[in-house]
Amino acid sequence: IWADVLGYVRKNISEVEYHTWFAPVKNLGVQEGSLVLGVRNSFAQEWFRKHYLELLEDALRSLGAQNPQVSFQVLPAAQDALLLPSDPPPPPPTPAGRAVPASAPVENRKVLNPKYTFENFVVGPNNNLAHAAALAVAESPGKAYNPLFIYGDVGLGKTHLMHAVGHYMTERFPGKRIEYVSTESFTNDLINAIREDRMTQFRNRYRSVDLLLVDDIQFLAGKERTQEEFFHTFNALYENHKQIILSSDRPPKDIQTLEGRLRSRFEWGLITDIQSPEYETRVAILKMNAEHNRIDIPQEVLELIARQVTTNIRELEGALMRVVAFSSLNNVPFSRAVAAKALSNVFTPQEVKVEMMDVLKQVAAHYNMPPDVIRGSGRVREVVLPRQVAQYLIRELTDHSLPEIGQFFGRDHSTVMHAINKVTEQVGREPEITAAVETLRRKMQGLEDDEN
Ligand code: ADP
Ligand code: MG
Predict the structure, then answer these.
(1) In whole angstroms, how far apart are CA 2 and each of 9, 37, 88, 94?
(2) 399 HSE (CA, 13 A, CB side)
(3) 22 vs 431: CA distance, rounded Å
(4) ipTM
(5) Which of 68, 208, 419, 429 has the highest CB neighbour number within 10 Å of its CB?
(6) How far, in Å, is the centroid of ligand 1 from the Cα of 451?
(7) Pocket of ligand 1 (CB under 6 A)
(8) Following DSSP, what letter does each residue of 383-396 receive, concatenated?
(9) Can you give the pLDDT of all 452 residues of the chain as single tens digits?
(10) How far away, in angstroms, is 83 Cα from ligand 1 center?
(11) DSSP SS3 for 311
(12) Is 411 left (phi over 0), alpha (psi -120 to 50) or beta?
């Protein structure tokens, strides 16, 4: 039935919309007469309620439902990792303890998100050490660093990197067994195994692998029985030179109530962190994402998005989705203004962040003059005025200090201050300058379409 619903939906919306919104949805089955769909985040949940509820109800009606009901549920992060975009929904997880085939690369793929590969991982100064370590481990599992411990805030690519190692090993060393598990499922598995008296099977499952990926290990905190069991799992694998990769939101020393013997083991190998991505890395990630989803979106729009969302990559992708959805629902082409509007519920327009180079470019376009000439040494009024306006707007619209602005223009800070004072005096008095400053300011804040 879910396939039929998707078929109906697909016929009624654009391809881009379908891929953006429906491909990642997970069918959670029917609960109390309502079709429950799992979505990635609360933003998607809200979006579905607002924009797709009726469409989905129509779809169900077309399939004969009398009183169709649909609800949306945000998937926990661990389940999200199991999503297979554009593939049929994954089969229910193997009940813990059922015999697992001794070697099965196809099995591995089932739990690895196909999107989370090394090829799809953008490397930047924020994550290059973690990336290099993961690659080293993938190339010589059990030999390079064991365990590899990756930590960093949520949404920065820890799960992605772990899966990438899994994919790499699956391809490079077919037949190797790989197990990816969140600390939460490990714990649940253990509880079930104890209750149902299946400890041997539990141990076989985790101790017979070549690569064990355990995500969000910080959740071991305070769980004594799980820590005990994990300690033995760890030892068994380690002694057999099997690779272990752990992720956490903090380094081992900061995980409270973690047994000393586990903590010290986590520190045996290599500990590496992932930080928030820099602006350039964020743009590159958005670009890759857009290409992947075959969305043709101008670079400057990606740049605007990258300035809005600075810490979390999952949120960054969410912002891109939002812009894509906004423009397709309103049937308008992508532009900085459209993006600013699409994001304005999440980020107030004042928060639109601009860079010095943007301001310079806009001013240059306004005065119909190459940016380099404005930054150059020319002293004639035709050049000096745009230069002063640019410095004035940069001071107003960015967080840069006078010396920084000076450096950007190859001048000292007192020259910049003089320029700013000059423009300040003239705004409100000189109609031409007033108009220029106002137009440019509006453009830069994304309030006006700069396409025309
Ligand atoms: P974490 O496990 O650290 O919370 P995830 O691995 O789930 O973060 O990453 C969140 C999202 O960001 C995923 O969709 C992932 O593909 C994407 N992502 C993270 N880092 C990168 C990167 N360097 N390049 C491309 N995509 C990335
Ligand atoms: Mg994760």
Answers:
(1) 10, 10, 10, 21
(2) 5
(3) 51
(4) 0.99
(5) 419
(6) 32
(7) 116, 120-122, 127, 152, 154-160, 285, 313-314, 317
(8) HHHHHHHHHHHHHH
(9) 888 899 999 888 876 678 778 888 888 988 888 899 998 777 778 888 888 998 999 999 888 888 889 999 888 754 443 333 333 334 444 444 434 443 334 455 457 888 899 999 999 999 999 999 999 999 999 998 999 999 999 999 999 999 999 999 999 998 899 999 999 999 999 999 999 999 999 999 999 999 999 999 999 999 999 999 999 999 999 999 999 999 999 999 999 889 999 999 999 999 999 999 999 999 999 999 999 888 899 999 999 999 888 888 988 998 998 898 888 877 888 998 889 888 876 654 444 557 888 899 999 999 999 999 999 999 999 999 999 999 999 998 887 889 889 999 999 999 999 999 999 999 888 999 999 999 898 887 764 444 43
(10) 14
(11) coil
(12) beta
Mutate to test the pocket of ligand 1, among 119, 156, 181, 305 (most ligand atoms within 8 A of CB): 156
Contact criterion met (CB below 8 Å) for 159 and 204: no
Longest dimension (CA), the chain: 87
Tokens 């199991």 belong to residue: 82
Place of tokens 């593939």: 87
**Single-letter code of the amino acid located at 240:** N
Nearest to 437 by CA among 408, 380, 395, 407: 395
The residue whose CA is least distant from atom 20 of ligand 1 is: 157
pTM of this structure: 0.63
